Amino acid sequence: MSRRSLLCAATLAACGLLSPLAAFAQAFPAKPIKLIIAFPAGGPTDITMRQLADNASKIIGQPVIIDNKPGAGGTLPAQALQTSQPDGYTLAQIPLGVFRLGYTTKINWDPLKDISYVINVTGYAFGIVVPASSPFKTWGDFVAYAKANPGKLTYGSTGTLTSPHLTTERIAQTVGIQLQHVPYKGSADLQQALLGGHLMAGADSTGFAPQVEAGKLRVLNTWGEKRLDKFPDVPTLKELGIDIVQNSPFGIGAPKGTPPEVVKKLHDAFKQAMEEPSYVAALGRYDMLPNYMSSETYTKFAQDTFMREKALIEKLGLAKPN
Predict the structure, then answer these.
(1) Which CA distances in Å does 153 have to 15, 144, 149, 198, 201?
(2) pLDDT recorded at residue 119
(3) Which of 95, 115, 131, 252 has the smallest number of Cβ neighbours within 10 A?
């Protein structure tokens, strides 16, 4: 917004013709916006969200700056919102782990009441990979070794209580195996450990795709409803007799109390940014797709997911003591 427009809005507000809230919303944004994401630089989340942020910057007229805060199962950005001003200048990626946090950890904020849900933008596709040199050529090989060697098969994920971790534990329960979990801060760190021979397997989003295409990793299964276009020869869990489908939508949230007019401006800018071919292409590198939810739909999704994750945490025996 121009300096003249800002002055006009301020003048109208001072004269009582425009409410302070409306004046603020009309002037927004007047400075750069920070978007905190839950995983390290160089991974699929970072790469795709940077493209989205770049697109949104051009639409909204101010830089949207990525701030990486990995760790704690992807929940640090949501926690950062709790101490941020509700002015639209601090936003956060909201992975599914946020909706599990209250069931596993004592927190003094509510994932439903204390976040303004702006827009859902995409979701992860997942699978289990092994190094190309691994003796596990198929999922059957993996299971046979794990059954013969309880607790000795190591696998990494992008963090404790993330979707890759919890889904792998569900899979292990279903097929009757015990695995040894090693958490990492994100896909980039996990892949380095896999390629360095420090792990026997990895459960991850399709950030592993470039390494698979380079012949360094091998995919044993994927977790969607149908096979991924990038890996048409790799079976889904359902095809392997495991009745689990896991995709992991994520979007953008703002602090509780952010003015509705500001939320709408942010929503509209990011929705348009999602539709740009550059963002769709960035997602395509990892077999991800745009997954739009409006602010209202995303809020309802958060409510439903919060209840569903409670059942999962209890089933796995990971709920915090009362």
Answers:
(1) 70, 11, 7, 11, 8
(2) 98
(3) 131
Each as own residue / partner, the long-range contacts of residues 288-291 (CB below 8 Å, 24 or more positions apart, any chain) are: 288/44, 288/48, 288/122, 288/123, 288/124, 288/125, 288/205, 288/206, 289/122, 289/123, 290/121, 290/122, 291/120, 291/121, 291/122, 291/123, 291/249
- pLDDT digits over 138-190, tens only? 999 999 999 999 999 999 999 999 999 999 999 999 999 999 999 999 898 99
What pLDDT, on the 0 to 100 scale, is given for residue 2? 46
In contact, 197 and 225? CB cutoff 8 Å: no
**Model pTM greater than 0.85?**
no
What the chain holds in terms of domains, given with CATH numbers, is 31-124+249-315 (3.40.190.150), 126-240 (3.40.190.10)
* Cα→Cα distances 21→1, 18, 35, 179, 255, Å: 16, 8, 23, 54, 16
Which phi and psi (to 5°) does residue 156 adopt? Answer: -105, 155
Neighbours of 252 (CB within 10 A): 27
pLDDT of residue 22: 60
- Please tell me the predicted confidence (pLDDT) of residue 320: 79
